[in-house]
Fold these 2 entries.
Entry 1:
Amino acid sequence: MSNRERSQLDQLVEAVLASRSYRNISRDFIDVLGSQELVKRSSLKEAIKATKNKLHQVGGAYIEGEAHYRSWIAQLRQAGAHGDKKLLKQACMGMMGYHVSTRERLPILEQFYTTLLADLPPIRSVIDIACGLHPLAIPWMSLGQDVQYYAYDIYRDMADFLNEFMDLIQVQGGAQACDVIQHCPAFKVDLAFMLKAIPCLEQIDKNAGLRLLEAINADHLLVSFPVHSLGGRKKGMVMNYEVRFRELVEHRNWLIERFEFPTELVFRIVKRKGR
Ligand SMILES: C[S@@+](CC[C@H](N)C(=O)[O-])C[C@H]1O[C@@H](n2cnc3c(N)ncnc32)[C@H](O)[C@@H]1O
């Protein structure tokens, strides 16, 4: 990259980080999106606008209202201090309502984890790709006491909050703000969640879904797709996403089970050794 291009990209990143909606997004991620847009657009101004639009599509559109992470932590501490699991779960549910992806899962929370996890061997390590607020559902997952849970999303303030939450419920591991397309965690785990992530990641890189599916080194992999658009319309989404998923896993010797919930289509994958 020439000095001029670097300087334009730096200006773009600063301009995006200066806006309220995107100030907490990982700088590296903005850097990648920004450099793609600078190549495509005829001016810096247009590239800034296009980068913000992309960030909205893949992140901002899922977040409704203002996150009050400081007061949420205080609320969770209070619930935790009473040692009352029900109170803690109630608080988590309230907070999950703030992110569209977890909010859609609220009516099926119990059923979701019982169906997908109950017959698996004990789970001691988890990665959660493009996690949103999904780690708040850990209390429903019946994971091992010594579980290590690693979560990744592009928001720094969300990662800080999730780290405090995991400390509070004494779950090891942690959340990290990063672009999973560039930095896919490939260490070995018992379980990987890739919930409603593929359509989002493929908006940035159409091969990202397949690359992640291949790179993730998990005994069990849960991959899901939404059944409604963000606007609430169904538009044959189940069929379209199923076709896309089957294309991605074609010719792979993976064991795949399908689960359809009222708000989510899930595939559970076991990658068998050998092809
Ligand atoms: C549809 S939501 C799914 C959230 C969560 N997995 C769930 O199902 O509850 C997609 C999430 O991906 C995150 N995201 C988008 N692009 C990403 C990237 N390149 N790396 C990491 N996270 C990303 C967004 O911020 C958003 O929280």
Entry 2:
Amino acid sequence: MSEITLQIDGHEVQAQEGMTVLEAAQHAGIYIPTLCHHEKLEPFGGCRICIVEVEVNGWTKLVVSCVYLAEEGIIVRTRSEKVDRLRKTILELLMAHAPDSPQLQALAEEYGANPDRYEKDASFCIHCGLCVRYCAEVKNKFAVGFVDRGIRKEISFVPKIAAKECPDCKECFPLCPTSYLQAVYVLTQSLVFPEAS
Ligand code: SF4
Ligand code: FES
């Protein structure tokens, strides 16, 4: 794999061809916020909080850094007026669903997001998919999945698999940005396999 050079926030950065902009930044110790990214999982591009500004041949565009591949000579800005404005709006929308998430609260403070901008619809899950994808891609167990679609989409444990696999695993718990996962697990466990408590 060949090495490429790009610029991130004014720093010349080396990366391997095939790395995403997010990976290139992380490799160089430059922080970009993420909510649905995990280094062990396939890129997902769901939450959009990792959006950055990229300049290619004098043209500037906004890209999702966890799925956009780093290229030779591009100029990346992880913070700009546009990037910050977008992140602020994304956070305000997410906080309507999960106002008590410490991770969202910390980001909201950083980007000056107003948690009360949108009417509360506390569904608690922000659909980052980390739990579902981790269980499937890393553990190969499929004990938790999404049911329904659109705004009605929610996670659900598959009782038969969860009863067997989850009590000794729970590796997905710390990944959830809102703690909703733990709440659904406790409910499922108490209803379906209380003997595991
Ligand atoms: S339960 Fe948590 S980890 Fe799972 S999709 Fe929802 S917010 Fe993400
Ligand atoms: S971290 Fe990139 S879209 Fe969620």
